[in-house]
Amino acid sequence: MKIPPLLAHTAVLLIVATLLAACGNKADTGVAPVEIAQDSSCALDGMLLADYPGPKAQIHYDGTPEPEFFCDTMEMFSLYLKPEQARKVKAIYVQDLDKTTWEAPKGAWIDAKAAFYVVGSKKRGAMGPTIPSFGTRAGAQKFAEGNGGKVYPFAQLTADMARLDGGALHDQRM
Fold first, then answer.
1. DSSP state letters, 28-75
2. Alpha-carbon distance 6 to 63, whole Å?
3. How many helices (H) and strands (E) does the chain have?
4. % of residues, the chain, pLDDT over 90
5. Among 33, 77, 107, 139, which one is most buried in terms of CB atoms within 10 A?
6. How far apart are CA 53 and CA 47, in angstroms?
7. Around Cβ 35, how many Cβ atoms within 10 Å?
8. Domain boundaries in the chain?
9. Which CATH topology does 49-170 take?
10. Among the residues of the chain, which ranges form H helices?
């Protein structure tokens, strides 16, 4: 049986397109998270990360060998979600509070785009309000039940949720 040339070409194109799409959906960025050292500091304000509670974040940019660290997730999102943010991001990692503590988070890095976040909780990070990160929706929901806030996946977070004016400006103890 002879296959018509148009059908053969169409089949080959579909196979090639499928293989290319599979490559494009590759989850592994080839960039591993970097552990925080005692002297690791925040890219925005120079604060030492190890000195403060709450989950930390790191962004790996294309063409930059070392990541930029953030002393809390609010700072990372405030930068990442800005419309003028034009640097090519290779990977973003946050700490999974399902696997580490709020008081002294260590390791437990997960892909930020796969995490769940609690917006509007009463817990405070290094700079005031923050957006706690979890590897599971159940962990985020349990945290929200005890500390307030609403659970969101990465794709639903907006720049308005990551405003940095909620910390020192509204801290009545200062």
1. --S----PPPTT-BBTTT--BGGGS-S--EEEEETT-SSPEEESSHHH
2. 43
3. 3, 9
4. 66
5. 77
6. 12
7. 10
8. 49-170
9. Alpha-Beta Plaits (3.30.70)
10. 5-24, 73-80, 137-147
- CA dist 138 to 10, 69, 93, 110, 172, Å? 45, 27, 19, 16, 33
Tokens 């945290």 belong to residue: 143
- DSSP single-letter state for residue 149: -
User: 114-140 pLDDT, tens per residue?
Assistant: 999 999 999 998 888 999 999 999 999
- Residue pLDDT, tens place only, 6-21: 555 554 444 544 444 4
Radius of gyration of the chain measured on its C-alpha atoms: 20
pLDDT of residue 170: 45
Q: At residue 164, does pLDDT exceed 60?
A: yes
DSSP 8-state secondary structure symbol assigned to residue 117: E
How far apart, in whole angstroms, are the C-alpha atoms of residue 56 and residue 19?
A: 36
**Which residues are 69's β-sheet partners?**
42, 58
Please return the burial class of 48, using the count of CB atoms within 10 Å of its CB with bins 0-12, 13-18 and 19+.
middle
